[in-house]
Write a structure and sequence with these properties.
By secondary structure, the chain is α/β, with parallel strands linked by helices. Helix content is 43%, strand content 14%. The protein contains 20 helices and 17 strands. The strands form two sheets. The chain has a ten-stranded mixed sheet with strand order 8-17-16-15-14-13-12-9-10-11, with helices on both faces. Strands 3-2-1-4-5-6-7 form a seven-stranded parallel sheet, with helices on both faces. The structure holds ligand NAX, adenosine-5'-diphosphate and potassium ion. The site of potassium ion has 12 residues, from strand 4 and strand 5. In the N-terminal section; belongs to the NnrE/AIBP family.
């Protein structure tokens, strides 16, 4: 599903008007009416309910006037509270139409907070049409902040028009204060602000309404960001004649005296998601534990970290092999680990997934990535802490920062998987948001499992970007399958992977 920013939405609107002879009025009319339709679909007949619609000064407020007018067709119990004169022509037209239809408008300024609270708390449904995609700066006006707080405290049910007022459409950040919606009806396409926290927490149920923005091919060619849904995800083929070498192998380099389990989790996840052969290069402790869990793993005991040892195992691997480096690796023997990283980035042609401690080690010299051959696939799977070390920016600056991930991927020609409750996947040209999963995945060891799955799917010949999309989605679904959310260890998620896979 396509995701657009506020700027892209404005361009689409402009294009619909200039090239398809639509008008602002038609789009606003459809936005308003589709919101009323969504309310009906969700909450049933409107005639027995009473509504308060709160309209801001821009076109979001304009949608609010259309909604209020349309509700008049079902009930007279609809009142508008306005924050002031509409500032756009089309909004004014719709304010006037509402008045002509017998609608009642109260000015928030004159009503005061106390009366407003009375109206809000007595309404069955409050419609939040204060700010939409046009909100770009902090809400500093105290009276608006008080209004938003009152909506959040006193409303029975809040439907936000396009996006809850106060959320930055492009980042999901709260600009001072923001409405907590029960349902949000957005127009045309979801926006990043609906998908990224904290915005994602405030939207309630998200409905996407078509308002007449044409989805012609030439428009879709310019789309570059998407929400991952269960549809159209690629699965590896498993031809009946396949034997273990029909697929490549997954070679996991990781583990240390301190972190013994991490590469084992990666290896088991690779096994459970269809890999033909899984190898571990790590200390004896790691190998012993790995084999006790699954005797079919192939382990190479590397008790002192050595590039030559890695090279001897990896040099002769098949062209379909995939390397996962980093789970539980630790940061001791730093120089030799940098040598190993440099070797597998620059001298081996196979796809490499750089995860966990390998990312921390890489952050000392990210430019090694630039020495790779242009056709070689490198994937980085950082959480915000790791991405912050790599980019030398604060965690706050990198969290949910899809444009930064895009620029990074473009500069270093890698696939970046910025893991979080909403995960961002990008190769620099196309970006995907993943929202499957829940806090059952917020556990030590989760990331190791994900890198094992990605390695496994690439080894089964999926294109690396497609492999990541499928991996993050099914990993999320596996997390959602845990019976009581969070009452699990990350290890438990591995056993859910086959069933999660069968759902796509
Ligand atoms: N783009 C499109 O294709 C369509 C957009 N429509 C609606 O139009 C909305 C966007 O309308 P606008 O661009 O007019 O913007 P908004 O209505 O979202 O907000 C802009 C208004 O709020 C004021 N404002 C912004 N930040 C403020 C702050 N921090 N404190 C106080 N006031 C602030 C601005 O001065 C301006 O008057 C969408 O969210 C949607 O609801 C729909 O009518 C249908 C079509
Ligand atoms: N609240 C959540 N909702 C969905 N997915 C989550 C959530 N918390 C964590 N995850 C997922 O779990 C994984 C955690 O990875 P990471 O932080 O690297 O774990 P670790 O370092 O312990 O292995 C990521 O794939 C992330 O997207
Ligand atoms: K709104």
């Amino acid at each position: 599903m396509v995701v657009v920013t506020s700027q892209e939405m404005r361009e689409l609107e402009k294009c619909a008007i200039e090239k398809f002879e639509m008008t602002e009025e038609i789009l606003m009319e459809r936005a308003g009416i589709s919101t009323v339709q969504a309310i009906w679909n969700e909450y049933g007949s409107l005639s027995e309910k009473n509504f308060v619609v709160i309209c801001g000064p821009g076109n979001n407020g304009g949608d609010g006037y259309v909604i209020a007018r349309d509700i008049l067709n079902y009930t007279e119990a609809v009142r508008v509270i306005t924050l002031g004169e509409p500032k756009t022509e089309v909004s004014k037209i719709n304010r006037n139409r509402f008045l002509k239809h017998g609608g009642i408008i109260y000015k928030y300024e004159e009503l005061g907070l106390e009366k407003t609270i009375e109206m809000i708390s007595s309404a069955d449904i409050v419609i939040d049409a204060i700010f939409g995609t046009g909100l770009k700066r902090e809400i500093t006006d105290e009276s608006i902040a008080n209004l938003i707080e009152a909506i959040n405290i006193y409303s029975n049910c809040v439907v936000s028009v396009d996006i809850p007022s106060g959320i930055d459409t492009d980042t999901g950040e709260i600009l001072g204060s923001a409405v907590q919606a029960t349902m949000t009806v957005t127009f045309g396409f979801p926006k990043p602000g609906h998908l990224l926290f904290p915005g994602r927490d405030l939207i309630g149920k998200l409905k996407i309404a078509k308002i007449g923005i044409p989805s012609q091919t030439f428009l879709s060619e310019s789309f570059k960001r998407f929400l991952i849904t269960g549809e159209n995800l690629k699965k590896p083929l498993r031809p009946r004649w396949a034997h273990k070498k029909s697929f490549g192998e997954v070679i996991i380099i990781g583990g240390s005296k301190q972190y013994i389990g991490a590469p084992v989790l990666s290896a088991l996840a690779a096994q459970k998601t269809g890999a033909g052969m899984v190898k571990i290069i790590g200390p004896s402790e790691v190998c012993d534990i790995a084999l006790s869990y699954d005797p079919s793993l192939i382990c190479y005991r590397m008790d002192s970290v050595s590039k030559d040892f890695v090279s001897s195992v990896v040099k002769n691997c098949s062209e379909n092999s995939v390397i996962v480096v980093g789970p539980g690796w630790g940061q001791d023997n730093f120089d030799e680990k940098i040598n190993i990283l440099s070797f597998i980035i620059t001298e081996i042609q196979n796809p490499v997934i750089i995860d966990a401690d390998a990312l921390n080690i890489l952050s000392s010299n990210v430019d090694i990535l630039k020495q790779k051959e242009i056709t070689k696939s490198i994937l980085l799977t950082p959480h915000p802490g790791e991405f912050s070390r790599i980019t030398k920016l604060s965690t706050k600056e990198v969290k949910g920062n899809y444009t930064l991930a895009e620029r990074f991927s473009e500069e270093y020609q890698v696939i970046t998987v910025l893991k979080d409750a909403t995960t961002i996947v990008t190769d620099g040209n196309t970006t995907f948001f993943n929202i499957s999963g829940n806090t059952s995945l917020a556990k030590a060891g989760s990331g190791d499992i994900l890198s094992g799955i990605i390695g496994s799917l690439i080894s089964q010949h999926l294109d690396p970007l497609e492999a990541v999309k499928t991996s993050v989605y099914i990993f999320g679904i596996a997390g959602e399958m845990i019976q009581a959310e969070g009452f699990n260890s990350s290890y438990d998620v591995i056993s859910k992977l086959p069933e999660a896979f069968s759902k796509i």
